[in-house]
Amino acid sequence: MRSLLISGSLFLISEYIYSQGCCSGGSGSPIAGGASQGVLLDRQVEVAANFQYVGTNKFQSGDKDTVPLFDNFNSKYLYARIAFGVTKDLTMSIESGYFINKTQKQDTISINSSGIGDLLLFPRYDIYNRTTETKRTEVTIGLGYKIPLGKYNDSTITFIDQSTGKKYYTTSSPLVQTTTGSHDLIFYAFLFRGSPLKNFRIFANAFYIMKGWNPLGEKFGDYASVGLFAGKTFFKKLGITLQIKGEYIGKMKAAANVDVVALYNVYPESTGSRRVLFVPQISFSHKNFTIYALTEIPIYQYVNQVQVASQYLFTGGISYRFFAVKPKE
After folding, report:
1. pTM metric for this prediction
2. How far from chain centre, in Å, is Cα 85?
3. Per residue in 93-136, pLDDT tens?
4. What does the alpha-carbon distance between residue 237 and residue 232 come to, in Å, rounded to a whole number?
5. Pairing between strand 289-295 and 136-148?
6. If you compute the radius of gyration of the chain from its CA atoms, what whole number of angstroms results?
7. What element of type H or E holds 264?
8. Residue among 126, 97, 127 at smallest CA distance from 114
9. What angle do CA 143, 32, 153 make, to 5 degrees?
10. Rounded-to-integer distance, Cα 315 and Cα 292, Å
């Protein structure tokens, strides 16, 4: 039986690519988990939801720790996906998420936001699938389209005139916006090789996100990642998966008439990064249900100039599968 493997750094692309810049992180990534996904069976349905926590008070210049620019950043995110096996080779999923909070704190001042993030339409197609008694090989490709639903230009009160009571606002940094505001294309590839008799599998995935321009005249850096996985099932229900993932984020760009430094104190040259992550995951399956948890452990990080860096990430979730139409005998 072909499976959709819930592995990765749940939220692609971590969910999070929040270190787009020292104060310009942008929203969480559009795929919960950077999940490694093949295709479902014909007429099979999967409903999945997960929760992700991100926290950091770590700042870097290049690959060295440096003086913090603010106290800390944390985020809590709920993500949901529904996928349907249109045929045995084609699966279509619709995915979206909601930020319970995105908070940047400095001393007694907190900049907060919450709300819906993006909508992702993500078809995947099996271009090769071969199964024998001793091994199974699968190759899947996908093309996703991300539609921003949340706020990309939310603002924060910076001054209240005590004599008039008038409030003055400034645009919040992208780090606490719930979306970048751009329409993005996501290119995806997945390779699976398994040994059913040994309950062992190795697989790989690759993502490339081509970022669009948002209405503010900003283009966040394109994103690329490659993940290598190894997993084994114990007692028929307990799964252990280990991943090594490499990520690259390009620099932010702005239109000629847009001054992002004046807008929210973001320097495009202080955006963009690369990192290597170790991602252990544990899962437990019972009948049609699977629950899972994972964490991301940074092995190496390099950021351009001074930026907030990755530190803590935890994801937990559940998925349920069933057939919309009883499969043919």
Report:
1. 0.88
2. 23
3. 999 999 999 999 988 888 889 999 999 999 999 999 888 888 88
4. 10
5. unpaired
6. 21
7. helix 260-264
8. 97
9. 90
10. 8
Tokens 């039986």, located at residue:
1
The rounded distance, in Å, linking the Cα atoms of 288 and 281 is 19
Q: Cα(78)–Cα(158) distance, rounded to whole angstroms?
A: 29
- Is-contact 62 73, C-beta < 8 A? no
Q: What whole-number distance in Å separates Cα of residue 302 and Cα of residue 92? A: 35
Which residue type does 54 have?
V
Q: Compute how many other C-beta atoms are within 10 angstroms of the C-beta atom of residue 163.
A: 5
Task: Of 231, 307, 322, 323, give the one whose Cα is nearest residue 64.
Answer: 307
Phi, psi values for residue 248, rounded to 5°? -135, 135
Please indicate whether residue 32 or residue 268 has the higher confidence score (pLDDT).
268
In the chain, the amino acid numbered 238 is: L
Q: Which residue has the tokens 């939310």?
A: 154
